[in-house]
């Protein structure tokens, strides 16, 4: 029975070093576990940097995909220990309910079949839009050369670079800094 369970389920763990404006500042760990069309993704990062003052950012995302569609997800972000983001996306009927930290809800009527955590584990070939729990909306993605650019709509884009289908590097332009995630294992 144990051998059967091993054959039908899988797990992947990717570890990235995080650099803020070229300085090593922390780690990001992406996990994927489950079996075909039924996965749980987690992404956790802890970043410490100094801009005008010391900043510690903790990011914790868990997404559950069943039958190839998002079932539920929750994203919590803390800055210096203060909750900045607490977003949930929950399947309800044929759509979804997205709720942010303030409790404001909005209904999503489209199926959510590809989510940002998947970008770490496979190239988004032939995809035009990806669900973002951070932004609470679908973001456009386009291929440019060997990379994919995820457009947040606010000028803070992320570029995903791949090697053999796995994301090897993410370069993100933020309002006050440039953040890079580089795969280490």
Structure notes:
Strands 8-7-6-5-4-3-2-1-14-13-12-11-10-9 form a 14-stranded antiparallel beta sheet. The N terminus is likely disordered. With 185 residues, it is mainly beta. The protein contains one helix and 14 strands; from the N terminus they run H-E-E-E-E-E-E-E-E-E-E-E-E-E-E. It has one domain.
Task: List key phrases describing it.
185 residues, mainly beta, 14-stranded antiparallel β-sheet, 1 helix, 14 strands, globular, disordered N terminus
Shape: globular
Continuous helix count? 1
Number of domains: 1
Radius of gyration: 17 Å
Strand content: over 45%
Spans where pLDDT lies below 50 across 5 or more residues: 1-7
What is this entry, summarized?
This protein is 4% helix and 64% strand.
Produce the secondary structure layout.
Layout: H1 2-8, E1 10-20, E2 23-35, E3 38-50, E4 54-66, E5 69-79, E6 82-92, E7 95-99, E8 105-108, E9 129-132, E10 137-144, E11 147-151, E12 158-163, E13 166-173, E14 178-183
Antiparallel strand pairs: 1-2, 1-14, 2-3, 3-4, 4-5, 5-6, 6-7, 7-8, 9-10, 10-11, 11-12, 12-13, 13-14
């Amino acid at each position: 029975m144990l051998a059967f369970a091993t054959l039908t389920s899988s797990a992947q763990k990717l570890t990235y070093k995080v650099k803020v404006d070229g300085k090593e500042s922390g780690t990001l760990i992406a996990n994927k576990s489950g079996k075909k069309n039924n996965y749980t993704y987690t992404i956790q990062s802890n970043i410490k940097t100094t801009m005008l003052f010391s900043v510690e950012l903790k990011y914790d995302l868990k997404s559950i995909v069943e039958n190839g569609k998002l079932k539920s997800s929750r994203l919590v972000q803390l800055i210096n220990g203060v909750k900045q983001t607490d977003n949930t996306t929950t399947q309800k009927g044929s759509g979804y309910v997205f709720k942010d930290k303030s409790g404001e809800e909005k209904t999503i009527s489209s199926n959510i079949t590809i989510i940002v955590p998947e970008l770490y584990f496979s190239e988004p070939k032939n995809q035009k839009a990806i669900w973002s729990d951070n932004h609470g909306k679908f973001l456009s993605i386009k291929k440019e050369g060997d990379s994919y650019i995820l457009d947040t709509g606010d000028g803070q884009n992320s570029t995903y670079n791949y090697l053999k289908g796995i994301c090897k590097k993410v370069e993100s332009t933020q309002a006050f800094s440039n953040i890079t995630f580089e795969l280490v294992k």
